[in-house]
Design brief:
- There is one protein chain.
- The chain is of the alpha+beta class.
- Helix content is 48%, strand content 9%.
- Helix 7 crosses helix 8, helix 7 crosses helix 10 and helix 10 packs parallel to helix 14.
- The chain is globular.
Length: 395
Amino acid sequence: MADGVPGYPFPLADALSPPTEWARLRSADPVAAVRLPSGDEALLLTRYDDVRRVLSDPRCTRHSADAARATANEEGGVFGEQLTEDDLHQRWRGVILRAFSPKRVAAMRPRIEAMAEELVADMAKGGPPADLLASVGYPLPRWVICDQLGVPAPDYEKFAHWSDTMLNMTRYTQAEIDTAQAEFGAYFAAHIAAKRGDPGEDLISEFIRFTDDLDDRMSEAILIGTSQGLLVAGYETTASMIGKMVAVLLAEPGLWSRLCAEPGLVRTAVEEVLRFDANPGFGMPRYLSADVELADRVLPAGTTVVCSVGAANRDERAFPGADRIDPARTPNQHLAFGVGPHVCIGQTLAKVELCTVLEVLLRRFPALRLAEPVAALRVREGLVVGGLERVLVRW
């Protein structure tokens, strides 16, 4: 901070509490200059209305060669250019949206519940204390997304390192990032080739059928990039959220008992935990392709902004009692999955997984509690999506 520009992301007060900077910036400096892990400078948005407006504005794009780099990865890491902001991109999103339609996700729910029951039963057999993340948080979403992509079960374990490399901003060197991305890409190139020869009902086969029907056939690079993106987003983000959800609910006195007594609150409780998340990670970067008026000032074209959805979701202007968790909060127009043309495609599936895990845990462990104090919980440093190192529980 030698030049007066603070480093971003901000450190947390503890694993479950928001950075002190959020409230100060919302009040005094809602469009604040920050220094990113790459060393580049950007503007941080912390108010709900400003964040929602930028995420909804088509002039605020996800990718540009001129944008500030979020990470040390020269290609931008998970924020690098994968699909262009054009009609092709929108058509491709349409295909993925159909793949994650509410009807299709609803059909998946019985299998998700069965897997959650199996994982929780195995955790119970091992006895307390148990790491909920290792026992349930990671295995469930990994199984779900790999199953949907048609990835063979023996290959599941290969993705942990690749996923962590693509989502960590500070842990890996450029050479390590390049190696992991090359290995990840080579795996999916071979997987896609195998599915072309022997298609099934999985998403990869569905994407291949769509691209084969196009006059301007999708490039193999986009198929590979989409497969990688879905696996990383569908695995790591949901896994991290399962751990944070359980930790937050157990840390609030009386809340777990209330949910056991009122299981009808599970859906709204999940939405509230998503809003309340103090450790959602980096945020959503956008590049302004035109001048945009925001917070009584004009931001010029060429500016990179970072939308802090975590700070926006704690904005009292949008959520009365924002720093208090309310499992019955309705309505709850949080921004955890974004909004507008780039809203998270997999949010329906993620919510089903979160609700299912919570329902199973409430049924099986009405006396569940944290096995260590909140102060002992540790954040996974540098992770784009936020997360905890472990969540030890007893019952």
